[in-house]
Amino acid sequence: MTRFSYGDAAASVKLMATAFLLFAVLGFGVVGLQIYATTGLTAGGALAHYRGDEATFQTPMGFAQLVEITHAHAYTMPMLALVLSFAFVLTEASERLKVAVVVCLAVGVGLELALPWAVRYGPSWSVHGFNRVGVLLGTGLLLAVVVPLREMWGGRGTP
User: Which of 147, 44, 156, 131 has the alpha carbon at shortest distance from 98?
Assistant: First the structure.
């Protein structure tokens, strides 16, 4: 079986992969902007978003709203993690780093799906999980994008 190499890939493969990876980064940026717009990137803002806030007349997020959000994310987030993981495991990075990135993305997606429920119905301290999940997903995304792009366009060196 022939081993795949981003450095040796056809220009069309490189362009397709580059476009997808850059759109993934753009999507992550839009997510950050949306979170900023709805919560101000604060724990208090996130609590108010999910649990409501009488002082600002913000109503708690209802069960049906959480189901709707989870429904949309339960399809898209795992697919994004799968494609990013696949793009990364095709690199020349070490197997240990490949496993770490796949775990970051998979665990990050699982927590991203569960945290809104925990914040809405669980203990208030669970809101601090959003920062940790953001770091987990951000790290996985960054590595899953930078390493393949570096191999495609900047030579063969990998971390």
Answer: 147
